Amino acid sequence: MSARDLLPLILALAVLAALPxxxxxxxxLNFLVTTLIIALAGVGxxxxxGFGGQYxxxxxxxxxxxxxxxxxxxxxxxxxxxxxxxxxxxxxxxxGLAIGYLSxxxxxxxxxxxxxxxxxxxxxxxxxxxxxxxxGAAGLLLPLRPGLATLQFADRRAFYLLVLAFxxxxxxxxxxxxxxxxxxxxxxxxxxxxxARALGVDALSVKLRAIALSAAITAAAGGLYVQYFLYLDxxxxxxxxxxxxxxxxxxxxxIGTAFGPLVGALALQGLGEVTKHLAGGVPGVDLVVFGACLxxxxxxxPQGLLGLRRRRKARAERAVPVGA
Length: 324
Prior knowledge:
Blueprint: H1 3-18, H2 26-51, H3 60-75, H4 81-105, H5 110-130, E1 140-141, H6 156-179, H7 181-191, H8 193-198, H9 203-229, E2 231-232, H10 234-237, H11 240-253, H12 260-278, H13 285-300, H14 304-319
Antiparallel strand pairs: 1-2
Helix pairs in contact: 1-6, 2-6, 2-9, 2-11, 2-12, 3-4, 3-5, 3-9, 4-9, 6-7, 6-9, 7-9, 11-12, 11-14, 12-13
């Protein structure tokens, strides 16, 4: 990657890093932390769905696995929070490898793969809801112990910067995918798997590495979620809400692009909050907005908000007279 590739990423992170020091209220900081966690999950989904063309409806399986592993290792085994978070990311990647191996080895793709991932997330939710070590239906409540070692901060700005650092690393990985040989193989598999195989690409290996990376990033989002809210149950960890949020962000922002999930998460969550405020807190009104946005994007901007920008730029260049 060249310095030119990294410049937009550095500028975006610098702007986002400056936000919490502008005197924002606690509720706005809470909104930004939640949005960045969703953006991180969206980046994870985008690796597999956007770059790899393997659409998943069940990324909650990885989010919940990362969250539960992070919480259980601290509460049951007394692990350090940093170590538990790292292990949660690794366990999430292993869950991705297992689901990917079973699905891709069986030749599942398209809607069949999407439904299988949804089924895995639902099975995980039922198991977590009934097992003792996950706290069952009551869930898990992490003890409040503010400190760097416990990844609990009295100042929300510290946690915001921590989540932003994870988002920055995930965006860097996405940028690398756009420029690397592995990313080229992944896109070749997405466009035409048979043709990619004919050219010598090991499609199974490429898809397994992609789902492992995707699951690891999504598990990191889950681990950060439980560290921030200090509570977790099966409905939160493996609920359909995070699967929907993770796929909507890149689709609305720009699927298969490095910045699409971040742009989509900021746009959707911001619009949802504004709508809830204007509607007087009517329950579910943000979901109505999300659905309307998805329909509008599919109908008028299939390449997302970033695609609209590129289309306007191309139109402006065509409008310049030859020789001008």
